[in-house]
Amino acid sequence: MLKRKVDVAIIGTGTAGMGAYREARKHTDSIALIEGSHYGTTCARVGCMPSKLLIAAAEAAHGAKHASVFGLNVPTVETDGASVMDRVRRERDRFVGFVVEDVDDFDDSHKVRGYARFLDAHRLQIDNGLEITADRIVIATGSRPFIPEVLEGAGNRLLVNDDVFELEHLPSSVLVVGTGVIGLELGQALSRLNVKVTMLSRNESIGGIADSEIRKIAADTFQSEFDLVLHAEVLAAKETLNGVQVTYRKSGGIVHTVVVDYVLAATGRIPNTDKLGLENTGIALGARSVPDSDRYTMQTSAPHIFIAGDAKNELPLLHEASDEGRIAGSNAGTFPTVEPGHRRAGLGVVFSDPQIASVGKRAHELLPYTFITGKVSFHNQGRSRVMAKNQGMLKIYADKHSGILLGAEMFGPAAEHIGHLLAWAVQQSLTVNEILGMPFYHPVIEEGVRTAFRDAAEQLKTIEREEASHAVA
Q1: What keywords were assigned to this record (predicted)?
Q2: Quick check: 341 and 327 in contact, CB under 8 A?
Q3: Of 247, 263, 270, 368, whose CB count within 10 A is highest?
Q4: Which residues pair with 39 in a beta bridge?
Q5: Of the residues 334, 369, 389, which one is the last residue of a structural domain?
């Protein structure tokens, strides 16, 4: 058996693993970078980039179909599914190529091809026959789609997001199971590209929206565009000669059966930690057998083992994985000296239309008596109406005594951009009045943001007057 000893072993070469490698190299040249599958990131290969390419095509089609609102006549809009998917793959491959080039530039002597499994807290068995002993180890193994057992009967007609981008032609019909980020983005895009879409949610969840009022607006909006069924439970899926038959139960016990070309399982992702042999390390494990870890140092209960990225099963976002990989790699490089890393204000975006954004803390994460809510509807907001994008709502949450912005949730136009502005404000601990003192141009969608903060400012003034009155009494 071949054996090798290194200072740092990094398992995985996705966003977190690549970040960890770059940081660890600043402190040691004794590294094993282990990869059993493809080099490259989930985002570039099967995630954010190819999905945005599909969404871009869908938005172009949707805009052409609805040009009449501006007095423009577009007689027909035909979807060339083969051409759409060809561009998705070409551009996707281009993005992947850039990532692979980065890995190609890494020191070849550091690269180890194969799947790793812990023999104990310091030894890794690679399935190519190599045994690696490492002083410090970073787990950056990413995640994979979760497929409920009830959908397995769909056989070859079952898709996950990885598979969608390999379709050479667009299908005529798809049943999407799940209304999270993946299901909502891909389902709406397919619908706008003339695919008949039925989307099922086990409850009333839509794109991870926490606020019930905003969630209801979003549900009504999407239900006006495609067949969105809330409180639905899949009972059976069976592959047929030319498709798949799915039976599901709606609220009230009503059972429906549909036959579609494909079923898309958008039912979440699970961390790739279940085959690592973590039981051999003595590490404390939490939900889904994922190691418990410190979010500022990435340390597990075994101080020399760190975990970063989607493998942590916390926030499966590229920018979070990048930060976590950087922190884990740096601490693995300097161990036993370990420093807490910089964590940014929370920011999440769903690229549906209208878009969804969450920033910092949301209402359900705050105590009711500690904050006030400012809100605005975009139904009559000036610039939104000009663009015929006047849908949705923004709510901002501020500390009721200091006025500091704590978080926000939005369903509406340009949420990806407004979310960034609000995240910057949260990270800077800006107050409602300080934000209102910032410039707002006219006419822009951001004027709606100002309306929400003006609403919050009035509530803060009322609280201040009431507290002054009680003090005098």
Answers
A1: FAD, Flavoprotein, NAD, Nucleotide-binding, Oxidoreductase
A2: yes
A3: 263
A4: none
A5: 334
